[in-house]
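Chain entry —
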Amino acid sequence: MGDDSEWMKLPVDQKCEHKVWKARLNGYEEALKLFQRIEDEKSPEWGKYLGLIKKFVTDSNAVAQLKGLEAALAFVENAHVAGKTTGEVVSGVVTKVFNQPKARAKELGMDICLMYIEIEKAEVVQDELLKGLDNKNPKVVVASIEALRKALSEFGSKIVTLKPVVKVLPKQFESREKAVRDEAKLLAVEIYKWIRDALRPSLQNINSVQLKDLEEEWVKLPSSPPKQSRFLRSQQDLKAKFQQQQAQGGEQSDGEDEEDAPAAVDPYELLEPVEILSKMPKDFYDKIEAKKWQERKEALEAVEALTKNPKLENGDYGDLVRALKKVVGKDANVMLVSMAAKCLAELAAGLRKKFGTYSGQVVPTILEKFKEKKPQVVQSLQEAIDAIFLTTTLQNLSEDILGVMDNKNPSIKQQASLFLARSFRHCTQATLPKSALKPLCAALVKQVNDPAPEVRDAAFEALGTAMKVVGEKAVNPFLADLDKLKLDKIKECSEKVELAGGKKAAAVEKKPAAKAAAEAPSKSSAPPKKSQAAAGKASAGPPKKGKAASAAGGKPKKTSENKELIETELSVEACEERAAGVLPASCLQQLDSANWKERLASMEEFQRAVETMDKAVMPCQALVKMLAKKPGWKETNFQVMQAKLRIVALVAQRGQFSKMSASVVLDGLVDKVGDVKCGGNAKEGLTAIGEACSLPWTAEQVVSIAFAQKNPKNQAETLNWLANAMKEFGFAGINVKGFINNVKTALGATNPAVRVAAIALLGVMYLYMGAPLRMFFEDEKPALLAQIDAEFEKMQGQTPPAAMRVAKKAAPAEDAGDDGEEPDEDGGGHDIMDLLPRTDISDKITSDLVSKIEDKNWKTRRDGLNEAAAIISEAKLITANIGELPLALKSRLGDSNKNLVQQTLTILQQLATAMGPGLKQHIKSLGIPIITVLGDSKLHLRSAAMTTLQAWVEQTGMKDWLEGDDLSEELKRENPSLRQEVLGWLAEKLPTLRTVPGDLMLCIPQLYTCLEDRNGDVRKKAQDALPTFMMHLGYDKMHKATGKLKPASKDQVVAMLEKARTVMPDKPAAPAKAGKGSAEPSRAASASRCAAGGEDFPDSKAEVKKVRGGGGAAARKPPSPPEDPSPPPPKDKECNGSKKPPGKGKAGGSQQGPAAKKPAGKGQKEEEDKSGPIFVLIPNAKEQRIKEEKQLKILKWNFMTPRDEYVEQLKTQMATCFARWLQDELFHFDFQRHVKAIGFMIERLESESDATIGCLDLILKWFTLRFFDTNTTVLMKVLEYLKLLFTMLNREDYHLTEYEANSFVPYLILKVGESKDVVRKDVRTILTMLCKVYPASKVFPFLMEGTKSKNSKQRAECLEELGCLIESYGMNVCQPTPAKCLKEIAVHIGDRDTSVRNAALNTVVAVYNVCGDQVYKLIGNLSEKDMSMLEERIKRSAKKTAAAPAKPSAAEKPQREHPPNPNATFLRKPAQEDPNKLKIMYRTYRIQARQNAQHSEPSHPSIPREFQLDLDMIERDQNLVGELPELVQHKLDELLEPFMIPELKMRSVSPHFDDLHNSTASTINFVISQVASGDINTSIQALAQIDEVLRQEDKAAVMSGHIDQLLIATIMQLRLINSMHLGDDRVDKRDIIKLYSCILGNKLSLFSVEALAREASMGVLKDLMHGLITLMMDSRVEDMEDGTHVIRSVNLLLIRVLDNSDQTNMISALLVLLQDILVSTASSSRLSDLVMKCLWRMIRFLPDTIDNINLDRILLDVHNFMKVFPKEKLKQLKSDVPHRTLKTLLHTLCKLTGAKILDHLSMIENRNESELEAHLRRVVKHYGNLTGHKNEKTGLHMDDRMSKGKVSDILTEIFKKIGSKENTKEGLTELYEYKQKYSDADLEPFLKNTSQFFQSYVERGLRIIESEREGKARIQTSAGNPEHGVDSSLSSNNEELKPAVYYERLKILRQRHGLENTSRQGGGSEEEPQQRPTISLLSSKPSVASSTDMLHSKLSQLKESRELYQTEHSSHSPTHARSASPAANLDDLKKRLERIKSNRQ
């Protein structure tokens, strides 16, 4: 023992390392206790054990190891640093634990592995477990596989990476060990659950028998996807959701299912890539060119065998693709064409996206080859082109497809259309933008009219598919020219289409807006689209498409425009007829008069008629045709002509003017444009037509008409008009290409005026287009070019003027309809470039040129490059199709001759400028190789490569460069130059991007490698790039990625990450970039300026964007008056401050007028910004945010620590309603800026209170983020602001919504546990203020949650706060129930921390002060120590309160003035009330109700009046409340309506009650909350209002869903009266009687409506019954005047409640209530008597209600009752009434249901423990026997009256037989039969003196006989017993349905007879009730010793049941039974029961 004492003294950590195993064992035990005790996961204590944990698990002593494993598990679970030990510990577990024989050790080992996964170490654990699969010990392999399986089963496939597991799985199936193979099979089944068929390819090569076994197992699996059941620490939100779903019994909406379902795994991802290029035959390229087709075939067969591999390694497949393409295009042998196409298809499938590089070369060839007729070839080509489509995008292929659409060969056209149809099926709305769809649809529309039927059908199919994918609305604009038949055909095709992935078109139709918004960020080169989507998302309304949003009422006008587009031309007669209908007859007659004066008079009449005509009936075409009537536009009199032109302008402005009408007049107008006298009028007419039919269309028509004439004056004036019109309308949609040729003609005109006008027009176009415009005119004469340049020079630096006019039809009419979104979709500043004509140079890139560029001789290569450069520069602008040039240039980038590399880079720069955005499709083939050149050793080459790269990125945007793994592959090259250049480039580019593809994550491992590179410059660049990566990927993701680094590297990298985190740049704000070089427009959406005020926009895109942005905002606002089509008002009028939403302004358009006017410099501008409002009040924005969060469109504000995505989301939401500069300050990484921002907010709190309330949710959310900062300065400033904020909210009578509270209060409560006193004090102050703007009863649960914290200060403070709430507001704040809350509070009385203990005791004392001794019942069972502490504390507090008896009443007074229920503060002073605030209040309550009811409703600015309190009236009528009628006058029979409704109630209810259902839920909630008010008058008012509703039959239904709530409020009020008002002398007793009258009258009304009464739940009914019965017994009430009336009303109400409630709920409630009363020693016996009387009433009506009762639930409650009160305990009670009541209930149920009652025990979990079942069997058997007797009187009294002596003799004889060897069996049989006959026989005396062995022998023997007879009885009774046909068939059917009921019997039957008898009718019903008790008796007791006691008690129970009915019975033979008919039995039974009842009485 001496040794022991040495190590006993050591500290724990040293014991754990001791060489003596006992010391280690002791050390582990102590460590385990220590680990469970340490509360702070970051405690330094953990650090001591970091190095020891591996030793814990690898201990050599098995006993110590077991304890070590337990300690290790506790360590991993609780220690913050545990993650550092993952590798070594899991490795130790695998090698030293998994080989242990003890199952417990393995189990703990697996638990440790799973716990490491839970703390985010899945990768490391998985790696170690996979290493375990290579262990030589099969036990280790089996356990490793099992651990992997468990991990996958619990955490799911998102956390356990399946690829490495699937890779090693086939090997395990080859193991020699069966155990390994079996475990592998189980793992394969588990994997299959998660990824389904994706697993098959990987297991195709295992043994066929094993595969067959697996297939069989897979078939058995359920089809529903499995769910993650265990969650990582970072997934707590998911965990909560999962638990909630479990609690709801797994019921959940489809939407959630979809969201939770694991993403389908692609089998491709699980495969290993195969390298095939090196395996190709050496002579392939020679053979493929061979003359003999057999040789070519051999070459193709060899390649086909290689390309069959499903996944191919990336490499340079250019040569192979070219060779195959040549075969497809040129080979005459169709079989070889087919093979080559097949090889291409396999290559595309194996390489996937990596094949995209080659797709551009192959597709044109395949499309051309579709001319082939042979089906086999066509099919191969289709497969190839379909496979290639999946590797690229439709945009990349569209040029090639459009190229063949006009082909003469119908097969090619047909196949191209069919290919499009198939491709569309794989697209979504996002991947099929309008810009891509428009040209394709135009081509397909042409084909719809093709003479070849197969071409037409294919076009119909393609258009139908497009319609299915993007929706009818998106495609219709392109189909405007088709007639109805064709449109119908397209729709018919659309309906037949099945999309890939089985998506429904409806879904597409429904969510275009959401999809558009989702799509926007993915297009990196589409800033305007993005900004709009962002604005849409963050602002109030749902995101709208630009087109629909561009003006109020845009949509209907758009459709009318569409109709007019295809308006047919009317005949002259039709026109005359229509005109006659609207014009005076004289006017028409004089139109063509020879006298000019008559014609003039006619015109004047015409004009007057048009001015007064209604727009809807104006026949525009007819009117303008009348004007064109002879002399028409040849009119010679200028006055008549002027009048005509004025009328044209009027008709265009006022009517629905179509293009058809316009074409009638344009010729005439253009003809007069140059006229000196009429020119002005003509121009006005053109402008009006421009407004009606869109400027782009009008301009094109006008210019072409003008230049078809020879009149130079007209041409010059037309150009002048166009220049002016462009300024007025803006440049949107102008077709530049259409004008260029005419402008060139004008520039070459001989008339100088025409040239000057043309140059002026170019100057205006330059304003919008910039430099690219000059490219069109570079080949003009130098003198002319100099003039053009001079004009451009003048325009330099000017910004385009704001558009003054807009097209009348919402969008810039037709073009906005057709391609209104196109610029948005396709990309910012490149729009203008897209307008320029491009040359297709692919035919110039000949194979000779390509072979030259690839020649062996460098000079030839140089010449080839020069030729290519010449071709490009000659073409200026080129299309994206450049043939095979990309591959040729790519090979030159790696040329050994550096000069050629330099030359190639120059060509690539040239290519970038010439090709523009089309360059995107060459990024992978040409762009990525440019990056490779950055690794060149020559500096000049590197800088040339960087210049080229920048030129490319300028055209393509960054997104495509970051997609895929190409960039990460480049960084893998260990080339320091390349690494530092690329990282420097990324560091520069990433901060400018708003979104990046997820593939950027692939670069992270390389970035980490670079951080530790040997080269200092690389390390420096990597560190610079780190924050820019982090801004997009987030700290958490990047931190997680360090998990795979070596420990040493990891520490370094993590330190750098922390550093980078502090300097991480902000992402650019949503509308960051518009156009190419313009920073100004980016401020348009956020810098709160008006749409009209756009002088400072330097480029054209801004113009387009402004119109749309403004429209978007307009569309999102609440319905406002329709926009006037006239030009908008001046800017200063339009920008009208924040109060009034601007008509056409931005969402943020709230800057005051003068500020908007000055086009100031940038610095000045920011200063001005700060003078504007800091918050913008957007109507309904908050409701929209609430709605989005509820629909899970955005993240719910719920986290342990705020993750990046939460911060990003908040930024986005704030963008619309916070001033931009303020937002920058709020999200700055410097805390000083936060302090400054809060200072600003404090300054503006009063002046911008409305806007602050509008943005309150966002403000509070931002403050929750600050609670996680460690900076005290910021925290104190935050708390200062919050105190002022809540003061303001209280003053404004604003009430927080649930949404605001949920996202703020929990985080505020975190700060209650702050270590600094000053912080805690402020937080407590804020919590007090919070209760004034948010119901205390709702703050309570948050504080309850806070008491569960690990921080003891927080627990203590929360408990103190709870005590204060209870003191201030009474027990009704305890939510959900006082009992539940107090049990949780009482737990803390035993806390280790003194302050927590004290706080808990104080809180319970506060409860005691409110509700007295009832507190002991509420707190549940406490330990003796805790209880004594509590009692001591209560005694002390009692002494204090005795000294101050007036305290509760003193507290009551202020409560009256400020009602305690915060909802009651709604009764505020109406005098200073502003009606807008009322609206806000009601909206707030509506939102609350909406959250409660879980359904959304339209937010509506009107106030629901149904329950609105008339505040003025209430204040005036306070004294009227006393005039309630007295109860005395009511007789008992009138008590159905015990009181009259006071007059004042009528006023507040039902003015417009019918539009009630959607908007009243919150108001009902509010009124109900007032029922529980501490103020009597408030409560009476509320009850009266509710009663009014309940009494009106048609309106009572509105209360549905609120019944429990109302009853709870009533119960609370009853308790409040009982605990406070009745004892308070200052409360007028008449008020109390009045309140009681109202409550009882209200409840009588409620329980008169059966449908509502049945809604009351069991728990609420229990409390209600308790409350009412307590009230009946309350002597204080009885002593009051009119108290007896109240008692009588209660009595009547009780009867009504019992009769009309749901009967199941009622019986359950009474049983549970009875149980509680009997348990509680404090309750009086009178209370239990009254409850039992209620139960008897329920029992009496059971025969009528039995069909509506849920027997299972009632039996469960009886079972629970019998568990608490077993029979013995029941008998010990003072009164036997409870026992009798229970028996009566069960006997009545048995009598009514018979044996079927035994099938209703399904809800009882462990029926063996239940006394109930045995009791029921006895009773059922009893009734069964009764029905079997003819006359029970004679039959029952005789046999059984044996004398005791005789019984004793018989039993002695039997036991002798059992004791003798010979007759044992016979003796046992006799004993069994005796027991069956005399079930109450007492065997105890005979067994008492025998040995234990003998007793168990007897028992075993009886059991065997019983089971044998069981089987026989089955067979016999199935044949006999006809008279029990009905009963037995029922029981046997039920038995079949519920085998669990007779589980043990079935087991015996299976052993002996199989299952064939169970299905027969009539099986075993007679025997069953007798057999069952014995079985359950014998099986339920584990020990043999007690079984005799059980037998004894069983028999005595049977005896008692007989005594109850004062009868004796014995078994009767079947002959007796047969003689009685069922009817006779029933009558006898009824009579007999009546007798029993009368005897009892």
In short: The CA atoms of residues 909 and 951 lie 6 Å apart.
